[in-house]
Design goal:
InterPro entries: Aerolysin-like, Natterin_C. The chain contains four helices and 14 strands. By secondary structure, the protein is mostly beta strands. The protein has a single domain, classed as Proaerolysin, Chain A, domain 3 (Beta Complex), CATH 2.170.15.10. The two termini are 49 Å apart.
Amino acid sequence: MNFQIRNVSTQNELDINTALFKKFQTIDQATLMQRAIDYLTSIGATQRVADLAAIETGLTEFYQDHYDLLITDFSYGEVKQSLKSLIAHQETYANASPDDPLEATFSYEYSRQDGQSFKFTEGLKVGAKAGVKAKLPLVGEANVEVSAEVSFSAEQSFSTTESSKWNFLQKVTVKPLTSVKVIGYIRIGKIDAPFNCNVKVLDGNVLVEVKLKGDKGYSSWVFPVTAMMSDAERSFVLSGNLSGSEASDIYVKVEPVTTALL
């Protein structure tokens, strides 16, 4: 499956640094202190653990210009779907025997490409590399999940191109002195749907302003974002619209025809 990024015009942007800062302000002091102590202990910074008196959330700075993200948990609103059937293969079988039925095998292989476009209502103000996992709201037998790495800068969408191959085989019985046409169809589902998805920050650092014990004043310490914020606190909602198509299923019709029998 191939992914392409293209610029689109958006009205809003998700500034990841600002969003992380706002979430950071909602975390209670006791939780932040424990997370800082746990991280400092894990790296052997025992003196810093001893010096730490408080976290100054209002002075903490999220400063990076690039983050790795995971975009997943797509949920869709009202899905507009339409189905169109295309002829994938057809054969005509004639049975000239006056007595015996003809046993024929109708088989074919069909390949096609389909695409989907995910257009975000919000852009991403901070450049980011994102892993994407999304199930598509398709009809029929299709159960398609797209998964890949894409690169984001501000005001982006991404599109997918997927190649699929279908194999079909069916036995056909043709009565004596008759002919039939066997037509193999592939049903294409076209979709258009609004979506919400979850965007999680996977990496990065935060410059934490800390109050030190005694008369040592204040200092700025660097912590991994993942050490100071939970998965939920590093997650945000993006919205947008999905449009595209996907081969959903195959079926066969057998029709009597009039042909000259030899």
